[in-house]
Design goal:
Layout (H helix, E strand, L loop, with lengths): L1 E2 L11 H8 L11 E3 L7 E2 L6 E10 L10 H19 L2 E11 L4 H17 L3 E9 L3 E10 L15 E5 L4 H10 L6 H12 L5 H6 L6 E5 L3 H12 L2 E5 H6 L4 H5 L7 H10 L5 E6 L4 H11 L3 E8 L3 E5 L5 E3 L7 H10 L36 H10 L1 H6 L15
Parallel strand pairs: 1-6, 5-6, 10-13
Antiparallel strand pairs: 2-3, 4-7, 5-7, 8-11, 8-12, 9-11, 10-12, 13-14
Helix pairs in contact: 2-3, 4-5
Amino acid sequence: MTSEPLPAAARSLGEFELIRRYFQREAGRAAPGVALGIGDDCALLAPTPGMQIAVSSDMLVEGRHFLSTVAPERLGHKALAVNLSDLAACGARPLAFTLALALPRPDAAWLEGFARGLFALADAHGCALVGGDTTAGPLNLCITVFGEVPPGQALRRSGARVGDELWVSGTPGEARLALEVFRGTLSLPQAAFERVRARMETPTPRVALGLALRGIASACADVSDGLAGDLGHILTASGVGACIDAATATSLLAKPDQLALGYGEIPAEKRLEWVLAGGDDYELVFTAPAAAHEAVLRAAQAAGTPVTCIGTIEAAPGLRLRAADGHVRPCPYGGFDHFAARVAAEVGVSAADNETMPIETAPSAASPVTPAARPASSLPPLPPRATARFMLAHPAHAIALGFGSGLSPVAPGTA
């Protein structure tokens, strides 16, 4: 794990002391498969003989993927979770990861919380931190994760076949509910808000399900940019199309416990939109032969993860929705594209805006970023009415999140 100089004013905690104190574990804690961890110019991995190595990287940028007010422990969890979700989609067992971290300044309390959340999830999956980089700059996290999978057993996007059933894990759309609350476009009871906020800030990587689906699923992808968009990658890679049962998809945000929390007040079409284009779900969307229906259910039960069959794979290209009356229409929802959304925000047109934070709030005690350290936004300020909507619906959260000092959108849909 290497480093670059931090600002002179922050050198009470030096770069190498920061690494040693918060990220270098004591001897004997390395996970199986790691021959050499932090301390040299390179780490050395020792995967199980005959296994293939699965590698994935994800970056989290403040203001784009998370709010400045997120608790550091939750951010540590999410930074690793989004990468483990990629391994899950491949059916790979986690081995190790590297962390590249840019900080405006090294704040001890923030680092302690971040490392606690990071290592709690890492230890739960036997995944060792083996290196990385530190530097001074706007808060930015980049993790590369390594896993192993037997040859020929990796779950890929290209295996879906006509007649396969289409499945999704968990409850996609709940993270989007939290985003809409932050945007001020949705009001939820306190218990519901805490639930969906946890779904957005501490997603559960479906590693056990991915492992259980080896030899059963024909294709798989993780849902990060929206269910419809990520399913689209499977359809393109496999050269097929799909039809989703709209009522079944909508019901993913209408389960009894959800209705008890007030989800039923959300219009059905909006629930369907947020299930299919919500983003930040980190669930698995996968296909399997119809004859493997019971095998899928057994795998999900063994993994302790709920799954729902939401449609079928078809020969005709594209994604369609089937209504309860049998009417079929093209799916109007797509996935998130960072650059397309940025351009749309700057020119004031609409774009799919999932997996993005619409606002940057003033820093809180949980954030290491000071107002002076935060880079200025190049986008126009959030219209006051969006701020007012959130404050009226959630006055306690408006105070806790530090609203009122100026908000700026990074995607459309905030006005």
